[in-house]
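Summary of Year 1 activities. Much of the first year was spent building the evaluation harness for sequence design. The harness presents a backbone, in tokenized form, and records the residue chosen at every position. We chose the following record to illustrate the format because it has been used consistently in internal testing since the harness was completed.
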């Protein structure tokens, strides 16, 4: 895993049913489905995001976009300790007005300024 990112955009809030989604980011080349592909259902949430979820249990599944070099894995899916802390909060400008936080991680009103660098 490269990092843990807390996304406060309205799409993540809807997808995770929470104030934000925490996503473990890894390189697409380091990710593969091991089993259960027959249970993966897709939902195109926006032109940029296709959400996947399990048709058996409804769990949100990793965000894998064709040709995109990173994969976003909902952190709650990962068993065991990640031994990481949230590295940044993104899209806080559109975050839930009923939630406040200050964990010391950088906060950005939109995407992280270095997000293009991280994609390479």
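For this record, the design step produced the sequence shown next.
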């Amino acid at each position: 895993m490269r990092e843990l990112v807390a996304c406060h955009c309205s799409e993540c809030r809807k997808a995770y049913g929470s104030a934000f989604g925490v996503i473990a980011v890894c390189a697409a080349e380091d990710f593969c489905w091991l089993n259960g592909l027959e249970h993966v259902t897709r939902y195109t949430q926006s032109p940029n995001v296709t959400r996947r979820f399990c048709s058996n249990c409804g769990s949100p599944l990793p965000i894998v976009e064709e040709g995109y070099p990173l994969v976003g894995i909902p952190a709650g899916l990962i068993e065991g300790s990640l031994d990481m802390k949230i590295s940044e909060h993104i899209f806080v400008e559109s975050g839930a007005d009923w939630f406040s936080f200050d964990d010391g991680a950088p906060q950005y009103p939109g995407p992280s300024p270095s997000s293009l660098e991280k994609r390479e």
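The domain at 3-119 is CATH 3.90.1590.10 (glutathione-dependent formaldehyde- activating enzyme (gfa)). Quantitative recovery figures across the full test set are reported in Table 2.
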